[in-house]
Amino acid sequence: MAESFVFDVADSLLGKLASFAYEEASRAYGAYEDLQGIKNTLSIVRGVLLDAEEKKDQKHGLREWLRQIHNICYDAEDILDGFELQDKKKQVVEASGSTRMKVRHYFSSSNPLAFRFKMAYQIKEIRDRLNKVAADGTGFGLVRMDAEPRLVVQRRELTHSHVDASSVIGRENDKEEIIKLLMESNPRGDGDKSLCVIPIVGIGGLGKTTLAKLVFNDKRLD
């Protein structure tokens, strides 16, 4: 793993945390304070990541510290993706106008109340992990280094679905498999005509959100 990549991951996460859309979502789900805590701590950690890259071979344990920061950032991005997915589910349910679907949604594992408690717990866990790793990092004697200025779009739309397909490599088979399932009249084969959700699972950084956007933008599903 290239430690400079950890800086880019942290930078990307900070951009999302600073966006208006995620700020509003965090308030709605009662996670605003913890997400702000994550943003503040990560801002401090980000400042020393470039110095950590330069000293990674000189200080014992520094590579492992960088790996932990990397994992925490990816876990946090997965949680933010969860906000986006929940928002899309809500739009689908509301657009359907079906009382039955709304009742099923409320009693499913993705109902708003269950989602709020789940997200609040996971975000607090991320904040605690980051605080511990940040405290551990003070022992390395790292110095804050300024990076080149980067443009951050603060008002990122939560439902943004654009992706440049030409820049995505090696996901065509996965995309086709998901489209095949979506185009089947009844993927589960049990006669149920209600909304069916096809999950895309995997560890952070595999490109789950990008794959979902590729499927979403395919003209065959219009």
From TrEMBL:
Which ranges carry the Disease resistance N-terminal domain? 11-98
Which keywords label this protein?
Answer: Nucleotide-binding, Plant defense, Repeat
Molecular function via GO? ADP binding
- Give the PANTHER family listed for this entry: DISEASE RESISTANCE PROTEIN RGA2-LIKE, TRANSLOCASE OF INNER MITOCHONDRIAL MEMBRANE 13 HOMOLOG
> Could you name the domain of life of the organism this protein comes from?
Eukaryota
Please report the name of this protein according to its UniProt entry. Answer: Disease resistance protein
The organism encoding this protein is Trifolium medium
CDD domains this protein is in?
RX-CC_like (cd14798)
